[in-house]
Amino acid sequence: MSVASAINLLRNLKLDNSKTQQEPVQINETFLELFLIELINSTVSASLSEISKTRNLVLSSNNSQDLSPKANSETFNPVEQELIQSGLTEHEKLLIEKKLDEIGFRVGQKISERYTAEIQRFVDAIGVIKFICKEIWYSLFNKQIDNLKTNHKGIYIIQDLRFKWITKISNYQTNSLAKEKTSQYLHLVTGMLRGILERVGITSTVTFDIEDSPQCSFQIKITKSRLGV
Fold first, then answer.
1. Residues 127/154, Cβ–Cβ less than 8 Å
2. CATH code, domain with 20
3. What's the pLDDT score for residue 71?
4. How far apart (Å, rounded) are the C-alpha atoms in residues 103 and 188?
5. Please, what is the angle between helix 3-11 and helix 29-61, to 10°?
6. Structural domain containing residue 40
7. For residue 75, what pLDDT band results from cuts at 50, 70 and 90?
8. Which family does this protein fall into (predicted)?
9. What total of structural domains would you count in the chain?
10. What is the pLDDT of residues 113-124, one digit of tens each?
């Protein structure tokens, strides 16, 4: 599945029980879950292919043996993905996370377009973020954010006590690959939040913290805004 296809599909996202008054394409939660798995696996696989090619170029330049025979392949099966991911450097992990964040950013911008009329009535960032916590979060996850905190100086923390996208990832505390998979889902969300805000004139940095999976929180730090903070 291409990134463009993913963005177009998520642009029309509406879970079965959404309160949204518009009539976008209906997507049930099971389908969305399978879709996200495929999207992340495709993105990670493409990134691993690029990483393998880069490694082979380095090996070749050092007259070393090519240890990655599938470097020219565009996809890896799940077992191959796990083997490669277990040996990734921190820099290589960051490259994958950045790509997922970028996809999320583009998806977030498209999601924001659906709510342009509602969002434009807000005169400050806190109004927009409250709207995200209530209406947009409900549309995406069939629930509202559990907690919202702010220092009233441009920093907001939103907390989901049971984040739906990572509830089925087990052994988070003890399994490094489970931690990476959880991180991949959450980087999609940080990008989505940035994209939603950027579309209405709010530039931000977004990070996540996992207190006790599936409990997690997202910190939004506004760096520039056409609205008040």
1. no
2. 3.30.1380.20
3. 45
4. 7
5. 160
6. 3-225
7. low
8. Belongs to the TRAPP small subunits family. BET3 subfamily.
9. 1
10. 888 788 878 888
